[in-house]
Amino acid sequence: MSSKTFDEDHIANKLSLFFDRYKSKIITFPKEKGWMTDELYMYQGFWFQSARMFSIMTVMAAQDDFKPHPSDIYLATQPKCGTTWLKSLVFAIVNRNRYQNENHPLLSTNPHKLVPNIETEVVEKIPTYAEGHSPRLFFTHLPCISLPPSILDFGCRIVYMCRDPKDVLVSLFHFANKLRGTSTGPMTVEEAFEKFTKGITPHGPYWEHVKGYRKASLENPSKILFLTYENMKSDTENNVKNLADFLGYPFTEEENSRGVMEEIVSLCSFEKLSAANKHGDLGRGLPNSAFFRQGNVGDSINYLTPEMIQILDDITNKEFHGLDISF
Ligand code: PAP
Fold this sequence. Notes:
By secondary structure, the chain is an alpha/beta fold. It has one domain (about 10-320): Rossmann fold (3-Layer(aba) Sandwich), CATH 3.40.50.300. Helix content is about 45%, strand content about 10%. The chain has helices at about 5-25, 55-65, 85-95, 110-115, 120, 150-155, 165-180, 190-195, 205-220, 230-235, 235-245, 255-260, 260-265, 270-275, 305-320, and strands at about 30-35, 40-45, 45-50, 75, 135-140, 155-160, 225-230. It is globular, with a radius of gyration of 19 Å. 3'-phosphate-adenosine-5'-diphosphate (PAP) binds near residues 81, 82, 174, 270 and 299. 3'-phosphate-adenosine-5'-diphosphate binds next to helix 3, helix 7 and helix 14.
């Protein structure tokens, strides 16, 4: 008898259905060796994984099958730019009248389970948080150009968070090595650096992904909020206040007097969330703890050489010139 659960069977069937649907297209795409999976495929100018839930297949299925609503809120990042933190903050802000702090879902459930991803929503069968909630809250790693078009046409609100590419590289390097099978063996920092600078990362090139959302946010600031991990770290309270205003959930005077915003900041802190996610997993070999390593700014200095840092800073300065992005 199979040891797999019903949901795993459902997911496997859905993924194989998508594989049949898209394989004739996928085999024509450029490919490169991946970080965590065998291959990355280039589609619409970006690299997508060949397997796992965030893959070229679920990206294409999300574009074909996902149905946005005008009132939806979308969170977007590249991997390792603060996804888990952003999901928890927005979930806590939007649902602050629904849950009490002592039995808040964030203290027992990984933020990735609380805010569904549009790439995986088309695969999962289990009812998600989004069902029966208005506004629906979704997350995506998709680049701006690859979003299902009605998200932008409807003028849905989007919150994008990016992070200093040097720290993204190092965070991704650790994450990938945690997830790589023993047969593949760990990758070296040099390998990771080479891939990253060439733009070969899941959902990369890093710089193109950021530029797509940055330009869209400059054109439409009332609909697309652009945040950086570093700024969120250095001034969490002001950022959370702005985030609540942008989402249409401003803190009231009465809430301010009760310190509700400060409670949300504390609930979503690295310390609280990492303690709540010490055990358990998201299924498919992904431990909850893999999303909590250090949560600091500037850890890259401990892994990258001064030459590597200089090269990455030079690329970033050139690519982001005139876009008013600083870390
Ligand atoms: P994902 O895109 O794969 O979901 P994501 O959450 O963006 O991953 O990245 C994890 C990073 O966010 C880790 O960074 P590090 O490797 O440099 O330490 C993780 O520690 C950090 N992180 C997770 N939760 C928080 C938090 N509540 N506050 C600050 N940083 C956090």
